[in-house]
Amino acid sequence: MEGKNRESKRSVNNVIPIDGSKKTRVRGAKLPNGLTTKQEAFAHAVSEGHNLADAYREAYQTDNMTPEAIHVAASRVASLAKVSLRIEGIGLEKAARRRMLALSREDRLISQLENIAYRDSEAADTATMKALELLGRHLGIWQEKHIVETSERDPDQIKQELEKKLSALLG
């Protein structure tokens, strides 16, 4: 009977006992992705560059925990499949945003260069052109791209090609 009573208290109060003691904590609300709000906050803190313990301190109440307990708990949370997938997902989202931002910068730069190039009446000032050039270098737009083709060759073929080139050079 006591077991049923305990179960009903959990669902009604949304409270769970900690380590079998009489102390309780409120269970976090679940988000649509299946994580609690604290797990989501932990994942964001890790993806922002915090180490696991600092991310745990940021997301959870740790006032009464020893540093060792925080490290263990942080490792435990990070090893949960949903949490680790979320951390990876946040990183991928950030990378996609950076790529989109870089592409939009390139588009704006090229558009501005085209506007300057096609102006008939007034020449672009040196400072504007220099700024556009530096921005283009920073974005990597002006880098030459070299395509290297490789083919499978055995050592004998390489030796023959080298001998042929040496004989052509030496006469």
Strand order in the sheet with the most strands = 1-2
> Quick one: how many beta strands?
2
- What is the radius of gyration computed over CA atoms, rounded to a whole number of angstroms? 30 Å
Question: Into which percent range does the helicity of residues fall?
Answer: 55-70%
What does the main sheet amount to? 2 strands, antiparallel
Query: Are there runs of 5+ residues with pLDDT below 50, and where?
Result: 1-24
Mean pLDDT across residues: 78
Taken from the alpha-carbon principal axes, the silhouette is: flat
Give a summary of the structure in a few sentences.
By secondary structure, the protein is mainly alpha-helical. The protein has a domain at 2-85. Helices cover 64% and strands 4% of the residues.
Highlighted features:
single chain, 171 residues, mainly alpha, 2 strands, flat, disordered N terminus
What do these coordinates show?
With 171 residues, this protein is mainly alpha-helical. It has a domain of 84 residues. It contains seven helices and two strands, in the order αββαααααα. The protein is flat.
